[in-house]
């Protein structure tokens, strides 16, 4: 069984960090309702869902993906590039330590989990404003003994690597070519997002299916045509906080 670590939505979500989307009003109650629907989708797809309580003094704390990189052999606690987020990891670590040995990214390194995409034994890491060279090098050193290779990926125009590309099936990526070049992923089957849905590349693979925001029907049609099953969820309020479906959980294998 898969385990999904999640955290309740902070009442202060409207004060979140933003980089590439404009600030608009966020309804915390609606965000909570949508997050509960997201949790139900995880459960229906086979996950045992851990629901951590909100940390209302940390607006972005619902986005638990950014504070850790979980592999089969260990978990790496990150050091977020947004200073306001660097205290989010402690409570997540208290859960992760029950499942994995823990290692940490140290200053001056920064690394956010949204920039990290694992495909087999290769870990692609976005070179973003939130993840620096030191963070990437430290991650490579921490995981090399377990047979992983870390590959830095140039990107542009978006917050995290997984804003631009995610794994949707074995050897298949969903990608926005305006934000990351497909040439960084030779040998993969590439499905491009619909040009009118630039934010649609972020999907969460759970087992053989994917969770995808419901507001991207044209890209979902492309996924369906490729034989990929899609479970849709409405995360519109979380998207206003520059979040997406990968951001709200850490998925652990047995």
- Number of E-type strands: 15
Separate helix tally: 6
Distance between the termini: 6 Å
CATH homologous superfamily label:
L-arginine/glycine Amidinotransferase, Chain A
* Gross geometry: globular
Kindly name the structural category: alpha/beta
> Could you say what the CATH architecture is?
5-stranded Propeller
**pLDDT averaged residue by residue:** 97
Proportion of β residues? 25-35%
Radius of gyration from CA coordinates:
17 Å
Strand/helix succession = EHEEEHEEEHEHEEEEEHEHE
User: Major beta sheet, specifics?
Assistant: 3 strands, mixed
Major sheet: order of its strands? 2-1-15
- Number of domain units: 1
Short description:
The chain is an alpha/beta fold. The chain is 21% helix and 26% strand.
